[in-house]
Amino acid sequence: MSYKPMVSRILIHVFLISGACTMILPFVWMVLTSFKTVAESTSMNPFVWLPSEWKWEHYINVWRQNNFLILYVNTFAMMAIRVILGVLFSAMAAYAFARLRFPGRSFFFGLVLFQMMVPTQIFIIPQYLMVDALNMRNTIFALVFPGLVSAFGTFLLRQFFLVLPKELEEAAKLDGCNIGQTFLLVMLPLTRSGLVALGIFTALFAFKELMWPLIVNTSADAATLSSALAKIQSAYSVHYPELMTAAVLAIWPMMLVYFLFQRQFIEGISTSGGKL
Amino acid sequence: MAKLSNKVSKNTWNEWIWAWFLIAPTTIGLIVLNIIPIFQTAYLSFFKSGDFGRNHIFVGLDNYARMFQDPQVWQAVVNTLVYTLLVVPVSIAFAMLIAVLLNRPIRGRSLYRTIYFIPMIAAPAAVTMVWRWLYNSNYGLINYLLSLLGIPPVNWTTDPKIAIVSIAIIGIWSFVGYNMVLLLAGLQEIPRDFYEASEIDGAGKVKQFFTVTLPLVTPTLFFVMVTTIIQSMQVFDVIYMMIDITNPAYEKTVSLVYLFYNNSFKYSDKGYGSAIVMLLLAIIMIITVIQIKVQKKWVNYS
């Protein structure tokens, strides 16, 4: 007959709920502001919590004025290509490093490890100069360029390949598979959770990236959602509702994907953290 | 099949060809995109402007001499370290607390985990826009709430003494969820037996945390620490979006990477920018080496 467990349970939930509210408050506020008028957003006496009218005009205006369609296309193209190529090339290399013996294996894997230990800003200037020399600035190719291969992805998937039983390759060989077929048809499907995790990581980090698109795609119709926001911010200056509208337009796609695939996101992060 | 000569057997040769083919895209990519650029950046740091254009002049160690005497560079180092020292312990402490609370049988664990992770999903550029709005001195929600408590408005983003803390708060807010998910995964790998044994010994929940949980979660904790430190040392997005050069708080918040960006791409002095990023590399390498050495003392790999 003790109240202590009950009280402590309630306190714990109160604490957790306050934390959860802190996490989402900025987003809620972002959305609410995007529907207000400028006057409502800057009114202090009285302070306006909910808009009196839900002004959808901001969304239409901001979308049109900043050509959000192009921004979506650029951003998603960059994400999709990086995910497909990054996961494919990483899986291929990871399989070789994990399951095959060949001269140079340690050396080349050493390169992979080395790249992971270095801050990415070291690569940026030369990468920029390369894209510039190829005359490919302000293209989707430019956006994708640094993400074509992934040392992290190779390292991560190698962990997944390492734990598969040796018998699989022997069985595949008996069935007449060459190494390529063994990789593609037998081993790869067994690392599905790793592939999903890497795909999610790659997509998420591509989506959030700011500096690279900012410097390499400077023209407005080659920009990504993140890099366009900087210009939008100065363009709208104190038009807070429009600013918030732009922010919402920039993040809702990833939020939607996250809510649809929460389990995969969380599992992907947890398992890759564990594997590393 | 026995090798009858010194030549490589057909099977082995076959394996080698396949292997080289499979690692080719990634290896070529790494060399072209990463390995060679590291040397190029180092090389560029010895030039003025360094864009292989008209102003590309060899200046030897001048950039480094200038950098070591540049107060803005040292301030940027301080700013970056202050930011890191604020974000890392605080975000990890909160993350650990929440992970421990969620590690027990509790209702809504998945929901909490999903919600705490949301800040990680949003692009920092957009996140900074809304925080800038929240921090607004005249109309922002935070100052409004403070005014309800009778506290005068704070200049969150323009006061040089406070701005770095405002930025750090955003960093902590972003990382708590991510670190918590990782720590929770680490906690869930600790076998129940350890807890049961310690309960039999009469240990209360708090004591259990220090004697069972903490020692056994150290590998995950180490990983979380290293990744958060490295990410924090590279902070750019939030500061770039929040504080521009004309802001009075710029000096005391500009991070090393932001300084690198300004010099390389705004002022087109890529030589100097390269020197700055080499400094960042050196600092991060030193920190990483220290962490790896210290790891042996406190991380328990069973």
Tell me how many strands of chain A there are.
0
Could you spell the SSE succession of chain A in H and E letters? Answer: HHHHHHHHHHHHHHH
Percentage of residues assigned to helices of chain B: over 70%
Largest sheet entry of chain B: 2 strands, antiparallel
End-to-end separation of chain A in angstroms reads 46 Å
Largest interface, Cβ cutoff 8 Å? A-B, 92 and 96 residues
In the CATH hierarchy, the architecture of the largest domain in chain A is: Orthogonal Bundle
Radius of gyration of chain A: 24 Å
Can you put this structure into words, describing what you see?
The complex is a heterodimer of chains A (276) and B (302). By secondary structure, chain A is mainly α. Chain A has 2 domains: 4-55, no CATH class; 60-275, MetI-like (MetI-like fold), CATH 1.10.3720. Chain A is built from 15 helices and no strands. Chain A has helices at 4-34, 38-41, 57-65, 68-99, 105-117, 121-133, 140-144, 151-162, 167-174, 179-187, 192-208, 211-216, 225-236, 240-260, 262-275. In chain A, helix 11 (192-208) packs across helix 15 and helix 13 packs antiparallel against helix 14. With 302 residues, chain B is an all-alpha fold. Chain B has one domain (62-298): MetI-like fold. Helices cover 72% and strands 1% of the residues of chain B. Chain B has helices at residues 10-44, 62-69, 71-103, 109-121, 124-134, 141-148, 163-187, 192-200, 205-233, 237-242, 256-266, 270-298, and strands at 47-48, 57-58. Chain B has a two-stranded antiparallel sheet with strand order 1-2. In chain B, helix 3 (71-103) runs antiparallel to helix 9 (205-233) and helix 7 crosses helix 9 (205-233). Chain B is flat and about 75 Å long. In chain B, 42% of the residues are buried. The model of chain B has no long low-confidence stretch (mean pLDDT 90). At the A-B interface, helix 1, helix 4, helix 5, helix 6 and helix 10 of A face helix 1, helix 3, helix 4, helix 5 and helix 7 of B.
